[in-house]
Amino acid sequence: MKRINIITLLLAGIFSGSMLHAQETLTLQEAVKFALENKAEAKKSKLDLANAQYKIDEVRAGALPQINGSASLTYNPMIQKNVITMTDQATGTVNTIVAEFGQPWNSQAVVQVNQQLFNQSLFTGLKAAQTTREFYQINDQLTDEQLIEKVANAYYEVFQSDLQLNTLETNLNNTTKTRDILKGLVDAGLMKKIDLDRTEVAINNMLAQKQQLINAQQLRENALKFAIGMDIRQDIELPKETFDVDLNVAAEQYNVDARTEVKVLEKQIELLELNKKAKVSEFYPSLAFTGNLGYVGFGPQFPIFNDKTNTSKFSALGLNLTIPIFNGGATRAKVNQANVDILKAKVDLEDTKLGLNLASENAKSQIRNSLLTVDNNRRNVDLARQVLDDTNNNYRNGLATLTELLDAENALSDAQNNLNTSLLNYKVAEIQLIKANGNLKTLVNE
C-alpha cells in the first residue's frame, strides 16, 4: 500500500539503516500546501519578494546624506625646490632665492558629506522601487498559481493510475475465480482443458498489464513527488473520493482582467512608464549640498602622534548645480526607446488577454463535453457490468461460451477505463476553469 512518510527516524545499533514512518493520506490540498512550502520555484519567488525590499532600501539610500571619510599619509624623500625672484625697491637689485616648498611628512584626514536637494531621477527611482515590490508580490502569486496547476494535474494523473489499477485488479480477481471454477470442472471431466488454458492466457495477460500499470503508476507518483518537492523515496496514498464531479462548475463566470497574468503585465507596463520618466528626468537640472571637514599635519618628522608636527584644520560648504545643456540627443533617444518598450508591453498585454479568453472558453467547452462523456461512460459501465452478470449466469447454465464471458469481462474493463479517463479529463478541465476564474488559491483553503 502506498503511504506518505511524515516523520523518518534513523535508528542506531542493530536497527541501523532501518526507518520508521508516520503515515497519512495525501489529499490534493495537502499536496498543494506541501509544494508551496517546499518546491524550489515557491522558495525562489519568496526570496525575490524579500530581495525587492532590499532594492527599495538601496534606492532610498540615495536620498539620504552620503558621508565618507578618507585619510592619507605621504613621505617626500626629496622635496622639489623653486626659485623666487625678489627686487629691492630702493636699489633696484634683483635677488634670486632657491627655496623648498613643503615638508617631508604630510598627513590628511577628511570627512565629506553630500546631500541631494533636487534630483528628479532619484525621485522617480523611489517610485519605481515601490512599484517593483508590488510587481514581485503579484509575480509571487502567479508563481504559486502556476505551481498549484502543475501539482493538481500531476495529482490527478496519479489518481487515474490508481483507478486503472483497481479496475484491472477487480477484473483479475473475477477471471481468477472463473479459472478456479473451470479447473474444478476440468478435473471432474465436465469441461474441456482448452477453456481452462484460454482462461490462464487471459490471466497471464492481465498480470503483465498489471505490472505495466504498476510501473507507470510509480513514474507518475515520482513526477508528483518532484512537483511538490517531496523526497522521492517517500510513499504516498491518495484518498478514494478525489474524483467528485460538480455539475454546476460550467456555469461559473470568469473575468480575464482579474487574472494574475494580466496584473503582472499591467504592473510591468507601470514599471516601464516609470523607466521612461527616469529617462526624461535627465533633462532636469540637479542640485546637491556638499561639505567637508579636514585635518592636515606636516613637518620633518612622522606627523601622527607627534607634538612637534605642524597641524591645520580646514572646512568648506557649498552647493553643486548641474544643468544638462546638450549631449547630442542621447537622452531623447533613450526616451524614445523607453516609449517603444511600453508599446510592446501593451501589445503583449492585449495578446495575453486574447489567449486567456481562448483558454477560458476552451475550458468551459471541455467541462461541458467531459460532463456528458462522464455521464455516458458511467451508464456504459453499469450496462457492461449487467452484461457481464448475465453472460456469467448464461455461461454457468451452458447458454454462453467462454469467449463470450471473457469478452464481457474485457468490455467492462474497457468501459471502466474509459470512465476513468473521462474523469481525469473533467478534472483537468476543472482546474483550467478554476484558473480562468482566478480561484486556484481555493485549492489550498478548501
Summarize the structure.
By secondary structure, this protein is an alpha+beta fold. The chain has a single domain (about 5-40, about 120-285, about 325-445), classed as Outer membrane efflux proteins (OEP).
Counting copies of identical and different chains, the oligomeric state is single chain
Coarse structural class = alpha+beta
For the sheet with most strands, the description reads:
4 strands, antiparallel
What percentage of amino acids are in beta strands? 15-25%
Radius of gyration: 41 Å
- When the domains are counted, the total is 1
CATH architecture designation: Up-down Bundle
Question: How far apart lie the N and C ends?
Answer: 27 Å
Strands side by side in the biggest sheet? 3-6-7-8
Could you give me the name of the CATH homologous superfamily? Outer membrane efflux proteins (OEP)
pLDDT averaged residue by residue: 83
CATH fold naming: Outer membrane efflux proteins (OEP)
Q: CATH class, please?
A: Mainly Alpha
Alpha plus pi helix count: 8
Order of helices and strands: EEHHEEEEHHHEEHHH
Give start-end ranges of low-pLDDT stretches: 1-23
Helix content: 55-70%
Q: Count the beta strands.
A: 8
